[in-house]
């Protein structure tokens, strides 16, 4: 079913205007969805500095915790995550594929949430990782997020492990379109349909009543009439094997691993930490709250990504 999907380079077809500034002061964080934490301890800053300085080919994995400072809630953070505050759960893959009404509900909510969700901007942490890539420090970046914020920041050595909400493809023929383009089809098909976005989830979902959803019209693939699906790995689906192999290769070329803003509860990302452990790579974790790899990491720091990462000094190794 997914054979027509392209594996790499697809996201580059989306033209964002990357943030050019090296300055970290231009993005003031939105902390509503960031769990409470203390400012970085100077000793911890020094430890992370040592870890990063010792790495020549750093493999970085990010999760929802890096995007909370851009105003996107995560699912699992204590008190402020979506699971803690609401009883909403993301759509399951099988349900989406099987049920027309599930798709109608998904797209109606996604349509309402899109203007706000797609307007989120990268924060300091995204910009720092983009700069580390330019300076030759970061070998590969893997994100579990589907918000395109690393792409918006200008990162290129990047794999979006769970896809990206900014792309949509046809389950039958594999045709790809931009999510922004689909918004226009939705508007054309639903000229009088109106609903308000109250709160937008990490995947762009919002809450709507059944009545609101029932009258929403969903477009089919323009080429074959097939079912359109965001290029996102839904819960209950698995990451494409070729993507997994590709990331394992990038990890094999790396000399250490940094996890930023993820509790690593989801196996699709966790498996790379296990692989790093098996290769005896040093692992550092920067996450507010416990993670699944705390017991085998060399370094664990409970700080905000956007507060700690800019304190780390990285020199240009490309010349
Ligand atoms: Zn199609």
From TrEMBL:
Highest taxon, organism lineage: Eukaryota
Family to which the UniProt record says this protein belongs: Belongs to the sirtuin family. Class II subfamily.
Chief location of this protein within or outside the cell: mitochondrion
Source organism (scientific name): Columba livia
Binding site for Zn(2+): 170, 173, 221, 224
A cellular component annotation (GO) from this entry: mitochondrial matrix
Stored CDD domains: SIRT4
Keyword tRNA-binding carried by entry: no
Binding-site residues for NAD(+), renumbered to this chain: 63-83, 144-147, 261-263, 287-289, 305
Function as written in the Swiss-Prot or TrEMBL entry: NAD-dependent protein deacylase. Catalyzes the NAD-dependent hydrolysis of acyl groups from lysine residues.
Molecular functions per Gene Ontology: histone deacetylase activity, NAD-dependent; NAD+ binding; zinc ion binding
UniProt-annotated location(s): Mitochondrion matrix
Name assigned to this protein: NAD-dependent protein deacylase
UniProt-listed Enzyme Commission number(s): 2.3.1.-
Catalytic reaction annotation: N(6)-acetyl-L-lysyl-[protein] + NAD(+) + H2O = 2''-O-acetyl-ADP-D-ribose + nicotinamide + L-lysyl-[protein]
HAMAP family tied to this protein: Sirtuin_ClassII (MF_01967)
Cofactor binding note from Swiss-Prot or TrEMBL: Binds 1 zinc ion per subunit.
PROSITE patterns membership: SIRTUIN (PS50305)
Lineage: Eukaryota, Metazoa, Chordata, Craniata, Vertebrata
Keyword entries, A-Z: Metal-binding, Mitochondrion, NAD, Transferase, Zinc
């Amino acid at each position: 079913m997914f054979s027509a999907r392209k594996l790499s380079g697809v996201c580059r077809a989306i033209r964002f205007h990357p943030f050019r500034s090296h300055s970290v002061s231009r993005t003031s964080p939105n902390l509503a969805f960031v769990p409470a934490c203390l400012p970085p301890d100077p000793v911890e800053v020094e430890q992370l500095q040592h870890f990063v300085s010792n790495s020549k080919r750093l493999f970085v994995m990010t999760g929802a915790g890096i995007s909370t400072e851009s105003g996107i809630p995560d699912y699992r953070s204590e008190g402020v995550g979506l699971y803690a505050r609401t009883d909403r759960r993301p759509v399951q893959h099988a349900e989406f594929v099987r049920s027309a009404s599930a798709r109608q509900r998904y797209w109606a909510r996604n349509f309402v949430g899109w203007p706000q969700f797609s307007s989120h901007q990268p924060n300091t942490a995204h910009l720092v990782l983009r700069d580390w890539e330019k300076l030759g420090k970061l070998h590969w970046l893997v994100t579990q997020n589907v918000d395109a914020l690393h792409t918006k920041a200008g990162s290129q050595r990047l794999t979006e492990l769970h896809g990206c909400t900014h792309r949509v493809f046809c389950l039958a023929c594999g045709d790809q379109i931009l999510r922004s383009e689909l918004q226009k089809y939705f508007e054309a098909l639903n000229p009088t349909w109106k609903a308000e976005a109250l709160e937008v989830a990490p995947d762009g979902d919002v809450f709507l009543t059944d009545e609101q959803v029932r009258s929403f019209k969903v477009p089919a693939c323009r080429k074959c009439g097939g079912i359109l699906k965001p290029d996102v790995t839904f819960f209950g689906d698995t990451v494409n094997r070729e993507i997994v192999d590709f990331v394992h290769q990038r990890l094999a070329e790396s000399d250490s691993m940094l996890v930023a803003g993820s509790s690593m509860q989801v196996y699709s990302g966790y498996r790379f930490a296990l692989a790093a452990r098996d290769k005896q790579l040093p692992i550092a974790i920067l996450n507010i709250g416990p993670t699944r790899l705390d017991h085998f990491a060399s370094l664990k720091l409970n700080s905000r990504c956007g507060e700690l990462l800019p304190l780390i000094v990285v020199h240009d190794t490309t010349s």
